[in-house]
From TrEMBL:
Residues 195-220 are annotated as: Disordered. Pfam families: Redoxin (PF08534), Thioredoxin_10 (PF17991). It comes from Ramlibacter humi. GO terms for molecular function: oxidoreductase activity. This is Redoxin domain-containing protein. Residues 39-189 form the Thioredoxin domain.
Length: 366
């Protein structure tokens, strides 16, 4: 897969601005070292102390890892969060690398650093890791201690350390898989490993883990919570933070505008439906549409119905919806609601909730 532009695969930068993105790109550029290392995509600088992994509140798939247990290993630190579509799409590659190079002294350590409140809970992270087929160790970084120690700016971020504990490569966002794997191979050879393969993996992800479409989405990530909501439309004006309010939907939406209908209580990071029959509509242009959702009460699923341009999605349904547009919200996670063969035209997406008690957090596209 060809690496795509960084801006299309970099989720939720601190500050959300292009200035922050430019600063990160500038930092990355000046860290390349000369000669062959530059050509190979390598740089060398002192790594953040691996003991900073002690900031994890718990671990999944492993006891706490220590500097001693990682000594002499080539280590990939994968900063991710399980509601992030960009993170999910990297997983087929990371799982494949972990399996392919495990016996050569290569270790993947996932660092799960949350965005939304539900992602702070270790039990939720453990369930998500199991559902996603993650068997490598995961540090649950709910306090962002490890994130801060490494100066991470967004999801996903991949840091490769050599057997001496030096950070030698950093990948910001999706893509760059071929270069990352070549760096893994070179660092293993530098560590004296023999029989290091020269071929590259080419996994095929499914559902939310499938690769992004060939054309960039024309719709941006959009938050439903009041703290970061943009392009909301209603005849009554902006979102109302606080008590429940009966929203009247906008009668028409321009590209990338959205609206609510029904009785919603809007908080800082999500909107919670109070009564059956509430709806969200969004006019978008992209191959895929995802929405981070969760039931208000664990163990009490919420049924929903999706429509595209007023009709059942048919062949354009996502992996969490059937062709009739029917689906079920059973846990807090990212749901793929639309998967089209191409992003050729604007579509009006509508989701109607057939039960009360659902929280909606953010749209993402691909």
């Amino acid at each position: 897969m060809n690496a795509r532009p960084l801006a299309l695969h970099w989720r939720r930068l601190a500050g959300k601005g292009f200035a922050a993105l430019a600063a990160i790109i500038a930092i990355t550029c000046v860290q390349w070292s000369p000669g062959e290392a530059r050509a190979a995509g390598l740089f060398s600088r002192p790594a953040a102390d691996i003991q900073s992994l002690d900031g994890a509140v718990s671990w999944v798939n492993s006891p706490p890892l220590t500097p001693q247990s990682l000594r002499g290993k080539v280590v990939l630190l994968d900063f991710w969060t399980y509601s992030c579509i960009n993170c999910l799409r990297t997983l087929p590659y990371i799982r494949a690398w972990a399996e392919k190079y495990r016996d050569l002294g290569f270790v993947v350590v996932g660092v799960h650093t949350p965005e939304f409140g539900f992602e702070h809970q270790p039990a939720n992270v453990q369930r998500a890791a199991a559902k996603l087929g993650i068997t490598f160790p995961v540090a649950v970084d709910s306090r962002r201690a490890i994130w801060r120690a490494y100066g991470v700016q967004g999801w996903p971020s991949l840091y490769l350390a050599d057997a001496k504990g030096m950070i030698r490569n950093r990948q910001l966002g999706e893509g760059g898989y071929a270069q990352s794997e070549r760096v893994i191979q070179q660092l293993l050879r530098e560590a004296g490993r023999t029989g290091v393969p020269t071929d590259l993996v080419s996994p095929q992800g499914e559902g939310t883990q499938a690769a992004a479409g060939p054309m960039p989405a024309q719709s941006p990530e959009t938050y439903v919570g009041a703290a970061q909501a943009e392009r909301f439309r209603s005849p009554e004006g902006p979102l109302r933070l606080g008590p429940s309010h009966a929203y009247q939907p906008a009668t028409s939406l321009a590209l990338n505008e959205w609206t609510l209908a029904g009785d919603w209580k809007v908080g800082e990071e999500a909107a919670e439906l109070q009564r059956t029959g509430g709806r969200i509509a969004y006019r978008f242009r992209a191959r895929d549409l995802h929405l981070v959702l969760g039931p208000a009460m664990e163990g009490k699923p919420v049924r929903f119905r999706v429509r595209l341009d007023g009709q059942a999605p048919g062949a354009d349904h996502g992996s969490d919806v059937d062709a009739n547009g029917i689906g079920m919200i059973d846990s807090h996670r990212l749901y793929q609601l639309v998967r089209q063969s191409s992003p050729g035209r604007e579509r009006l997406f509508e989701i109607e909730f057939l039960d009360p008690g659902v929280s909606a957090y953010a749209f993402t596209f691909g």
